[in-house]
Design a protein that fits this description.
The complex is a heterodimer of chains A (241) and B (293). With 241 residues, chain A is α+β, with helices and mostly antiparallel strands. Helix content of chain A is 22%, strand content 36%. In chain A, strands 1, 2, 3, 6, 7, 8, 9, 10 and 11 form a nine-stranded antiparallel β-sheet that branches. In chain A, a hairpin with a 7-residue loop joins strand 8 and strand 9. Chain A is globular and about 60 Å long. Chain B has seven helices and 16 strands. The relative contact order of chain B is 0.23. Classes of the chains: A alpha+beta (241), B alpha+beta (293). Strand 5 of chain A pairs parallel with strand 5 of chain B.
Chain lengths: 241, 293
């Protein structure tokens, strides 16, 4: 599997720990799933699945805490349905009634080098893995197979290289939350780049990625994260649900 | 008119003797990044102003309804009639029923159609399934001040009391003290992005985009209050890419716009800053639209 390397930097980041979602607390370093999303923001097709192999931490881990007014409600589909059917109604949500002040413990001034490659997969099955990215799927299996045949790895390799080196993206990649936009740069030769920070930490159990095989209940998968000299190696980690 | 370009923009705004965004953790002091001393304004604060502006201009009517409202935005008509939509155009080419997905899908489309803020910023709908989310095309970052800001604290008096008991305690003096925080001057910069791919999913079109630029340029004019002081949009620089994927990295474009203080004195006015826009260095395939400044 050929891997690409992207350098991503940003002023702030929040890779939220799933056990602390209300008052967000970030993991110390970028999660594999956040890194995957960065690659997907540049290139993603139903036929490919990105796999993050390595995350290098380039700047010391620093924190900032911030409290914001957030809304503690979601749109109720039922209300929407009722209003849709009747053609009139009041759907507004008044923030004063639904306000929640939530603090967040975010990372600040971050920089990572993330390495990932993709493998081809059966696009028909793939949609169930990433429902947030795709809405289109060919229902006819023969047609789907024909479409899959056009998916050669070389094509996607070149596409990604072209896009990443020009700074092109489908949406601006972000560091955990969309308000923390990431600058990205394709690293052509890792050998000439500065070394990661000299930190060795046991980060404990960390989110690896979500498993979307059952759409109704996407389940998180975790792995034992160990930062060795600033490098989080993901190539041979055991992932558990 | 669907969007066919990527946009990256820089929003410059300033505050004079006001509190642009209070920090609930610090008793409503202006938000300051403790390590650098630079002021912060959160993304949600700016989005709120965009919502309020659109609500004012479009009178809270579909298709420019605002979903997340403040009560302060006077709303004299609670029930609104929505334009019914034919289901036929929604479900093109997808005749396979998804488990529970269809109802959510349709409701989501309908929300996008009627609500500007759902179209622009996205929203989360209940019903658990992962499809109940709309990712909006507009992505805004925190605004940071160009230079460190100082927060001033002012004690103020009120020549009245709230309760009888207080009046008696003061022997009829009837005075209460209050507090107010301001930033004497701060110039802030926020970055934003518009993804045409996500715009297609929510139906955010050219008209909506024009309205967004208008909102960013004029939102402070309609957000006056005792706390805010004088806030003004000083610059809105929109980089329009020729293509959907874009022709240059966003951070390279943002670096072309620099705000520099003219002297070492503390800045107290926008005239104390010089904004340089390196138009000559704009890469091919990107054009700069100077909406403000």
């Amino acid at each position: 599997m050929k891997t690409f390397c992207l350098e991503v930097t940003g002023d702030f980041a929040c890779f939220t720990r799933p056990e602390m979602k209300v008052e967000r607390v970030s993991y110390d370093v970028m999660t594999p799933s956040a890194a995957r999303a960065v690659f997907e923001a540049i290139l993603w097709k139903p036929a490919i699945r990105w796999q993050v192999t390595k995350i290098e931490v380039l700047k010391p881990i620093k924190w900032i805490t911030l409290r914001r007014n957030e809304v503690g409600a979601v749109i109720s589909s039922r209300n929407v349905q009722t209003t849709m059917n009747s053609g009139s109604g009041d759907l507004g949500l008044y923030i004063e009634d639904e306000r929640q002040q939530r603090a967040g413990l975010f990372l600040r001034d971050v920089a990572y080098r993330i390495h990932a490659g993709f493998e081809l997969c059966d696009a028909a099955k793939h949609k169930s893995n990433f429902p947030h990215l795709s809405k289109h799927r060919i229902n006819d299996t023969d047609e789907q197979r024909a479409a899959d045949e056009a998916n050669s790895p070389a094509k996607f390799l070149n596409m990604f290289e072209r896009r990443a080196s020009k700074g092109q993206c489908v949406n601006q990649p972000y560091l955990g939350c969309r308000e923390f936009a990431a600058n990205f740069r394709l690293v052509k030769d890792v050998a000439t780049e500065p070394a990661p920070i000299a930190a060795t930490l046991d980060l404990g159990w960390m989110l690896h990625d979500m498993d979307y095989s059952n759409l109704a209940t996407p389940s998180p998968r975790f792995f034992r994260a160990e930062l060795k000299n600033g490098v989080l190696d993901l190539s041979n980690v055991e992932v558990r649900g | 008119m669907t969007l066919t370009n990527r946009y990256d923009f820089v929003l410059l705004f300033d505050v004079k003797d006001g509190n642009p965004n209070g920090d609930p953790d610090a008793g409503n002091l202006p938000r300051v990044d403790a390590e650098t001393g630079r002021g912060l304004v959160t993304d949600v604060c700016l989005k709120r102003k965009v919502r309020n502006f659109v609500g004012l201009v479009k009178g809270e009517q579909p298709p420019f309804e605002i979903y997340v409202k403040e009560k302060a935005v006077l709303n004299n008509q609670n029930k609104r009639a929505y334009v019914g939509i034919g289901k036929s155009e929604l479900l093109e080419g997808d005749d396979k029923k998804r488990k529970g997905g269809d109802a959510v899908d349709e409701a989501r489309q309908w929300m996008c159609r009627n609500f500007y803020d759902v179209r622009a910023f996205g929203a989360v709908m209940s019903l658990g399934i992962n499809c109940g989310q709309v990712r909006g095309p507009i992505q805004l970052t925190f605004a940071r001040s160009v230079d460190p800001v100082v927060a001033l604290e002012h004690s103020i008096t009120r020549m009245a009391v709230a309760t009888e008991a207080e009046a008696e305690k003061q022997g009829g003096d009837n005075r209460t003290m209050g507090r107010k925080f301001t930033v004497p001057y701060g110039l802030y910069a926020a970055h934003g992005f518009v993804s045409s791919f996500l715009a297609k999913q929510t139906g955010f079109d050219e008209n909506d985009l024009e309205l967004l630029w208008q909102a960013l340029a004029q939102m402070f004019e309609h957000d006056r209050s005792a706390a805010r002081g004088e806030m003004t949009t000083r610059g809105l620089y929109v980089f329009k890419h020729d293509s959907e994927l874009g022709n240059a990295p966003a951070h390279k474009l943002f670096e072309l716009i620099q705000a520099k203080k003219n002297s070492d004195e503390p800045a107290r006015d926008f005239a104390d800053y010089t904004i340089s826009v390196k138009e000559a260095d704009i890469p091919a395939g990107v054009s700069l639209q100077r909406k403000v400044g």
